Amino acid sequence: MSSNETDSESGPVQVRGTVLTVRRVDAYHAITIVAPGIAARFRPGQFVAVAVGGPDTSMLLRRAFSIHDVRPDHGGTVEFVFAANGRGTRWLAECRARDTLDLAGPLGRPFPVPRDPVSCLLVGGGYGSAPLFALADRLRERRCTVDFLLGAASGDRVFGALTARRTGRSATITTQDGSLGVRGIVTDMLGQVIHEARTDVIYACGPMPMLRQVTALARRYDIPVQVAVEEAMACGVGVCMTCVLPVVGTDGITRMVRSCVDGPVFRGEQVRWDDIGTIPFDAFGAPGWEPRTRRAGRGAADEPDEAPAAGAAPGTHVPGAQAEGRALGAGLDAREPAARAVDRGRRGAGSAGDNGRPRRGGREGQASPGRAADGGQARPDPARRHGHGA
Questions:
Q1: pLDDT(353) > 90
Q2: 239 exposure class (CB count in 10 Å sphere: 0-12, 13-18, 19+)
Q3: Under CATH, what is the fold of the domain 12-107?
Q4: What residue ranges do the domains of the chain occupy?
Q5: What does pTM read for this prediction?
Q6: At what angle do helices 208-220 and 186-197 cross, to 10 degrees?
Q7: Could you give the angle at the alpha carbon of 218 between the alpha carbons of 215 and 219, nearest 5°?
């Protein structure tokens, strides 16, 4: 088979799919579309970009939603979940069976999975848990054990609680108002669940403050974490550069990467959470940026001038050796057949903490892959940057 044929079978496609069902799921809506080309190519963690408003609409930008479920053997259906809070999503909620939608997908990089059986903890906030259930199925195929930790502001905003309890080895639910499960946020229970489940790998999807806290706590326990980030998207295919965020590479260099094509899944410890929304001074291509080899070649007289700049942004550099040494890099790979074993390795005795800060609000017409709503973050965040506000 030629490389072109391989690409055509694995890359995204644009289709006009027939709506099969639109149903209400507590505070959210779930829409199922017949799109066999997307269903056949899907891997957990990927998303679709959906045109909204019809042919005569002024809403030109697509809305991005994480894929919740696919059924290749049932006519090739694709389902995604959203909250109808903006013009585009309200239009989607009003669709009916036999309507047609224009959508492109599957887009983005999927969750990597371990080759060998390990203990996996799946953490979701709001309907950020939607893509985790397809991931759970894939992990169980690899004979991994799956535990769930889901949270939201209220019980009707926890997506998939019943499914998690039915299919997971354990399922812990938190709500900020105490209407379902434990009162609090997911990170309040994360340390306890890690100890009880003897977690080897964490997968998380939800609001950015939640992902930041999950990553911080996972590092204290020396547990690798994969996060599906929530960033505003306009095109979904890497052209507009709306969804860029700073990520440290294995070479120790920070680059502004596009979450729609380089993500949305990243290794949590490589995302510079405190610098999201900015271009760090030491990012590749930033004004005044120089390769480390050139800086090292400067004379001793220049060194005092360099030291304060390096210390001006604490925590903005992850050494390549540290990133490479983590168990996640050793055991997970997005290309499943080539995946290496997860290092079940070391455990720290960390404790919960590290408060996240609320993100800035999004704009109408921009969406991140239909993730997270209100749960699992440090404080209620009324202006969220994803599809349910678009």
A1: no
A2: exposed
A3: Elongation Factor Tu (Ef-tu); domain 3 (2.40.30)
A4: 12-107, 113-281+318-348+367-378
A5: 0.76
A6: 40
A7: 85
